[in-house]
Amino acid sequence: MRIASVGHTVFSVNMIGLGIVGLLYWDFVPVWNPVPGNVPARELFIYLGALISLTSGIGLFVPRMANIAARLLLATLLLWLLLFRLPNFLHEPLFAACWTVFPLAVMLAAAWVLYVWFAADWDRKHLSFVSSNNGLRIARVLYGLSLIFFGMAHFLAVQATTPLVPNWLPAHLFWAYFTGSTFIAAGVAVLIGLYARLATALSALQIGLFLVLVWIPIVAAGSKVPFQWSETILNTALLAAAWVIADSYRNTPWLAANSR
């Protein structure tokens, strides 16, 4: 078993879980769904994504397979983004379209980091632009842009955000705006390389707190609403991906002022 970091382990286990859930209950896995309804053999694509998720998650643990698994996952997520998500910008309201794009962009960013870590000599020679530090920078840019959107979403959809704040916390509107602001600040920090390690670590912590304080209590209370289960699964996936991005700065000082 080849373990590059804790984030690698968490992400790989999560991909295995996404694959299993996707094969059993494809409606619950937002990483691979939705696929536009006009795509031929739509359900087949969703099951294919889940199968790739499962096999890639397992392969990331096998030393001789980690490079192939990371490459396969990166290529699949990139194709999913280009073919099934980005076209939504032209056909759906901007906010809804962005919400389908940026969570997948976070997963793509994490897969890209793992691909850079596990790149073999062939990748370094033939795909040097995406398997070197350039690839790492692209992954971090994708993550930074996604964080900015997550923060903006708290402001643009504040009426949907405030009810998710736990009842025992006062000033729900404050927390909605505060968490939105911290996401935006973290995204900007990642893009300009200012305290980027600290920013990614804190953003991962905040995503984890959403999971623990918001979604787990909702589903633990016996929720049967598919959307809430889907969001819980998505939040778990985003946490795993954010952990990988944070681990990509592990050799960078916490307060480095130029770490793009």
Automatic annotation (TrEMBL):
Keywords annotated in UniProt: Membrane, Transmembrane, Transmembrane helix
Transmembrane segments: 12-32, 44-62, 69-88, 94-120, 141-162, 174-195, 202-221
Keyword Transmembrane helix assigned: yes
Protein name: DoxX-like protein
Species this chain originates from: Edaphobacter aggregans
